[in-house]
Please model this.
Amino acid sequence: LSKVLATKAVAKIQYFDPEELLHLAWGAASMNDSGLTRAMQDELAQRVTRINEGRHPEPTMEAALGVIWACQLADSLQTKLLDATSQAFGRIAEPLDCLGGHKRMLAVKPDTAAA
Model:
């Protein structure tokens, strides 16, 4: 039954709202359904890529963080979603940095930091 539901969910993944995707992610993680987790991550990566600071990104960004968490625990996290979410946070935060009058700090990835 769960495989049938997962297949139907994948076919309609673009119609799920962010909160539904988040709940679905936890279910998919517990089932170890790689097809469903891949489809959710692809869908959310597309959604967060389209986010800019002028809209209300909170539901989508919260869902993306929750899906990242669930997929990481299920050992099925794709870098595509992780990178898209990181870039979206950068786009959202940039205007906030300018409002504060602070100099923008350059981000250093942990794996490239000097020891």
